Amino acid sequence: MGDQPRPAKKTAKNRRKSASANEPEFVQLLNPGGQRVDHPDYALDLSDEEYRGLYRDLVITRELDAQGTALQRQGQLGLWPSLLGQEAAQVGSGRALREQDTVFPAYRELGVQWCRGIDLLSSFALFRGVDLGGRDVAADRFHMYSIVIASQTLHAAGYAMGVAKDGAVGSDEGEAVVVYHGDGATSEGDFNEALIWAGVFNAPLVLFCQNNQYAISETNARQFLVPPSQRAAGFGVPGILVDGNDVLATYAVTKSALDRARHGEGPSLIEAYTYRMQPHTTSDDATRYRDEAELDQWRAKDPILRYRTWLEAEGLAGGDYFAEIDAEADREVRKLRDRVISLTDPEVSEMFDSVYAEPVPQLAAQRAEAVAFRASLDEGSES
Amino acid sequence: MTTMSMVKALNSGLRTVLEREPKALIMGEDVGRLGGVFRVTDGLEKDFGSDRVIDTPLAESGIIGTAIGLALRGYRPICEIQFDGFVYPAFDQLVSQLAKMPNRSGGRVRLPVVVRIPFGGGIGAIEHHSESPEAYFAHTAGLKVVACSNPNDAHWMIQQAAASDDPVIFFEPKRRYQAKAEVDTEKSSLGLHDAATVRSGSDATVIAYGPTVDVALHAAAAAAEEGRDLEVIDLRSLSPIDWEPLEASVRRTGRAVVVHEAPGSHGIGAEVAARLTEQCFYSLEAPVLRVTGYDVPYPASRLEEDYLPNLDRVLDAVDRSFEY
């Protein structure tokens, strides 16, 4: 019992260099069969409690995400972008963050949000259409979802420049910034500019690319000839390819990149090789561009199944624990669901209230007009 | 009072901002060692250091995108876009990010970012160096848009823009950069979003901003010789527009001509004409007329004298107004 390191068991079977032929060579600490494999650059220092915690995060993230899809199907949300299949990429990286670190998400990062301990309601409010996803981003150290692909990479680079300007790097207590984006984002100018900026200004930034194989319907073949983790070198930035379905590996590589950033050693790019098991969003029809056989291949690499297998084999958790987590996930889902369906529509006036810090006369006039017009309609419908 | 060029006036305004506001930063292409291609930031890097006056990589989206990030961290960046025609690579960051993020946040996020853009023609430049893109930004909710027309305004408006908690797109008429005029370095009598009556008159109101204010003033001087008394209003702020002095003037004169370099269709002049028609309909003796650039891409420089509104075109419009 306790916090001693848990090295991989030395068997011929689980020596590094993994799985199937169609996988690139990436950092992997837990193979799809649930066996630990060693990597010379990445050791783990988690306590048993933390190991179990990762499982809890994975399961609860998956269940909350599934509820997003369900709520959309029931007409309670306008849209839901599912993260199914990407839980390990998000939980591993999310748990590697320290309190002082700051996150810039794309729009599918429910798992990271969960790990940060932030109220998830804002993400559901956004997709319900009752607001635009506003939160206290400074207190949360988790910025708003960014729908225009890769736009947030520059915000994160600038923020990280500010961290460096503040002198908040250079020690163990230094701050790091992580920005999430997808494989499609790597084709955008903003992504490439962010790498240049972070590089030349030595900003404490980690670009975390969830390569889930699809930008809506387009595969990696339409986004790049050289994968992002290799392209990083062209910017003078270390690039790391990691098994995105391995929560231990994503944790280890992110922690290492964040530590590098917080010590003032500059930016890194992590490419988490994973798979989007659901369509792009609930509005997408993935059957038009991929087949069941491909999905089956990735089902075999499921991030939760392999981790559960390992926990059991290590004696870290068993049936009772798994049942307990299932029950907790169920409670979390119900709690969230109740809150989401109780979100009421905003007042007409709200669209005018946050446009400017310093008020504009025209907007005051338009606000009064819109409110009065709405009121006149409501009166009409009551009579 | 001291006499200086608009470039010097902007420079002194920016210097004051850097002195008083420790979170203020200047960032852009060539703004540091070179002092900007127009020398607006001359000497600032030397005095405030490259950590506050930042030569950026050559990528406009990156300039605005990272300025947003710096603002999220508590900084107050003043960005320079080198020329009007180079702003478009930053369009998403300006229109979808800078303009909308504060609103998206429900007012919890404020982005005090100034984007300086030298604009307009009349300097014999090659393509993409003479444009007037202000209507794009004035059409975008969440941005405030201003244009200075003289050194005194330049000196004060840049400081007021830097003090604003809203994003401000700050247009500088590059053909007026070197014209000298008096600057009151003690105090300013106008707010950032106030229009200014720069010449009083009773027969017709000429409304201009940026580089065309000088054109309108020359036209008014010429008209005076012919016995016509023109009032000239400098809009100064294009979004929001300070309607009250415009409407009051037009109610008195009954005639209005709007002058700008940007193409006329869908431009600032169209908004001014529509609004004055709505608010001053019974006072108008003639429709509000526009004197603007044509609806063509900015022409080769040997043709720009034919493209730009000039004294004769303004007077011609005034004549037409009196024909109604």
UniProtKB/TrEMBL annotation, chain A:
Cofactors named for this entry: thiamine diphosphate
CDD domains named among the record's database cross-references: TPP_E1_PDC_ADC_BCADC
SUPFAM superfamilies: Thiamin diphosphate-binding fold (THDP-binding) (SSF52518)
Region called Disordered, residue ranges: 1-34
Pfam families recorded: E1_dh
Domain Dehydrogenase E1 component residue range list: 58-335
InterPro entries assigned: Alpha-ketoacid_DH_E1_comp, DH_E1, PdhA/BkdA, THDP-binding
Bias type Basic residues, positions: 7-18
GO molecular function: magnesium ion binding; oxidoreductase activity, acting on the aldehyde or oxo group of donors, disulfide as acceptor
Biological process according to GO: branched-chain amino acid catabolic process
UniProt KW Oxidoreductase keyword: yes
PANTHER family, sorted: 2-OXOISOVALERATE DEHYDROGENASE SUBUNIT ALPHA, MITOCHONDRIAL (PTHR43380)
Name of the protein this chain belongs to: Pyruvate dehydrogenase (Acetyl-transferring) E1 component subunit alpha
Species this chain originates from: Glycomyces buryatensis
Lineage of the organism: Bacteria, Bacillati, Actinomycetota, Actinomycetes, Glycomycetales
Gene name of this polypeptide: pdhA
